[in-house]
Amino acid sequence: MFVKRKENESTGSFLYRFSKKMNQSGVLKEARKRRFHTRPKSRLKLREAALYREEKKVEVAKSKKLGIV
């Protein structure tokens, strides 16, 4: 993207015009999307995590029943 400063244009109006063009072009939106992109987890990893959570839930419930936690 290219924005050229007009003759007798103030810095403030130029920055406003530039930022408006940037928002309309979607360059920043795309950059943020790429920056925070995470890879999708495999089915095996998701399943293992779910099983681990279930085991921990049972352990905590058992501890509460015994008065440890």
Could you explain the architecture of this structure?
This protein has about 70 residues and is mainly α. The protein has two domains: about 1-35, no CATH class; about 40-69. About 70% of the residues lie in helices and about 0% in strands. It has three helices and no strands. It has helices at about 10-25, 25-35, 45-65. The mean pLDDT is about 95.
Could you outline the blueprint of secondary structure elements for this entry?
Layout: H1 11-25, H2 27-35, H3 43-66
Largest sheet: none
Estimated helix fraction: 55-70%
Shape: elongated
N-to-C terminal Cα separation, in Å?
59 Å
Classify the beta-strand content into a percent band.
under 5%
Mean pLDDT: 93
Count, helices:
3
**Total domains:** 2
Computed over alpha carbons, the radius of gyration is 26 Å
Helix-strand category: mainly alpha
Order of helices and strands: HHH
DSSP E strands, number: 0
Question: What low-confidence regions span 5 or more consecutive residues with pLDDT below 50?
Answer: none
In short, what is this structure?
This protein has 69 residues and is mainly alpha-helical. It has three helices and no strands. The longest helix is centred in the C-terminal third of the chain and has 24 residues, at 43-66.
Key phrases:
2 domains, mainly alpha, elongated, 3 helices
